[in-house]
Amino acid sequence: MRKSIIGLAFGLAAVPATAQAECGEVSITEMNWASAQVVTTVAAFIMDQGYGCEVAKVPSDTVPAVTSVAENGEPDIVTELWLNSTGEAYARLEEQGKVERVAKVLEPGGVEGWWIPTYLAEEHPELKTLEGILANPELVGGRFNNCPSGWGCRIVNDNMIKALDLESHGIEVFDHGSGETLATSMAAAYQDGEPWFGYYWGPTVPLGKFDMTKVDLGPVKPEVHARNQNPDTEDPGVSDFPAAPVLTSVTADFKEREPEIAELMSKVAFPTDTMSAVLAWKDENNASAEEAAVYFLTTYTDLWRDWLSDEARERLAKVL
Fold first, then answer.
1. Which residues, including other chains, have CB under 8 Å from residue 120's CB and lie 6 or more apart?
2. Which end of the chain is more exposed for a tag (fewer CB within 10 A), N or C?
């Protein structure tokens, strides 16, 4: 399987666009993290082979991408834009009519929460709720695996830990020193079939590799969650984590110039758990973004074929 994916990835890189030149030049961000690179590689291939675009991938990050659009009107497409990382700069671009969000590229978005292994949830269904964990701390190993210092999730978690008084319920809070040790703790527990309870987020390799169950923390309470993001709040509370909006946006000029491609990008959306599964495959196979994109295209055909026009679907059928 791995060899066939690699061969197809190299083959696709060498194949010229089969479509007629119906589309001109298109620039799209390639953010510097794995899921964004998969998104961009998949979208670029579809635009090239399905619609005949001449695609330029622009290496970037959230703030530089927003700044470039504001100052230069480029790139045409900004994808995997995490709205909670853009501050007010992106909102101003929308207010000025310079950009338009066309899709949530991850659905439901970036997910955060407190998790336990699914095998533990199946053995002890009461642990699916926060109340069940507080009443049975020994079943989760008596430990909560917390975020590293300096992370935004650490502030939120610390406030909820305080509101719940976890330690008085017999749950030790273990503050991890890095994201690597947090991930390793989950992997080690899972491989040994041991309890694990802690914070994690997606899309990520661990949530694609390990079958985890999100603990029910109750409803999302926007005001409580906002207070919990303040390290000095005097009134911490308990709220579930809202999904973080992760967008694809296009410039107004591009939407007018290439309406068919803007329409395509409005449909390009990856379920967050699917992206986690693709990232897990990429990690397990030490694969490139191109190989991961081919894996997605050949494994999840029923998902992406509905993004395309009839003509583009026919052209891609000749390649894949």
1. 127, 139, 140, 195, 196, 213
2. N
pLDDT tens digits for 102-146?
999 999 999 999 999 999 999 999 999 999 999 999 999 999 999
Is residue 169 scored above 50 in pLDDT?
yes
Helices (H), the chain: 2-14, 34-45, 51, 62-72, 89-95, 118-123, 130-135, 152-164, 179-192, 205-209, 222-228, 252-257, 259-265, 272-284, 289-299, 301-304, 310-317
Q: How far is CA 192 from the centre of its chain?
A: 27
Enumerate residues 6+ apart whose C-beta is below 8 A from 211: 117, 118, 119
Predicted pLDDT of residue 22: 75
Beta bridge partners of 116: 213
Distance CA 20, CA 53 (A): 9
Phi-psi region of 73 (alpha: psi -120 to 50; beta: other; left: phi over 0): left
Residue that the structure tokens 């999730």 belong to: 153
Q: What is the pLDDT of residue 2?
A: 56
Give 55-113 pLDDT, tens digit per residue. Answer: 999 999 999 999 999 999 999 999 999 998 887 999 999 999 999 999 999 999 999 99
Residues contacting 196, CB < 8 A, separation 6+: 115, 116, 117, 120, 140, 141, 145, 185, 186, 189, 190
Of residues 201, 203, 206, the one with CA closest to residue 184: 206
pLDDT score, position 320: 81
Phi-psi label, residue 165: left if phi above 0, alpha if psi -120 to 50, beta otherwise = left
Which pTM value belongs to this model?
Answer: 0.91
Pairing of strands 106-107, 270-271: parallel
